[in-house]
Request: fold
Amino acid sequence: MKKTFTFLCGIAFFFGATAQTSVSATSVNKQASLTDNTKPVPESISLTETEFDFGKIPQGKPVTHVFEFKNIGTVPFALDNVQASCGCTTPEWNKDVVAPGATSKITVGYNAANEGQFAKPVTITFNGNQSKQIIIKGDVWKTPITSAPENSAVNSLKNEQ
Reply:
C-alpha cells in the first residue's frame, strides 16, 4: 500500500513538474514573440510650442489658447486622448485622422475662477501608448467685487455745461 501511494505521489509530482515547465516555456515563447512584434513606434508628433503663459488675467474671465501640432511620421494617426489635470482646464481637439505632413490643433481653455498663479499640465496620448505634455500657466488677479465708485467731479463738469 505504501509503495502504491509513493508511486502515485511520484507520478503526480512528475506531471506537476512537467506541466509547470510546459506553461513556463509557453509563456516565455509568447513573451518572445510579443517582444519581436512590438517594435517601438517612432514619435510622429511635433508641437509648435509645449508651454503657453497667459500672463496676468482677470478673475472670472475664461481664456483659451490654441496649440498646433504636425504629423511628422510616415503613417496617419488620430489623437487617442487629451487629458487635463483638473476640471478648470478643458482641452478640445479634432478626432479626425491627421495625415503625414498635416497639421491640427488642440484648444485648451482655462476657467480663471480662482485668484493666484497657476500651471496646468495637459497630456496628449497618441499612437496607442505615446504621450506628450503641454502646459498652460499664468497669474489670475482678483477683480473688485463692486464697480468703481462714483466720481463726483464728473457731475460738477456736467453742471458747468
Summary: The first helix runs from residue 2 to 37.
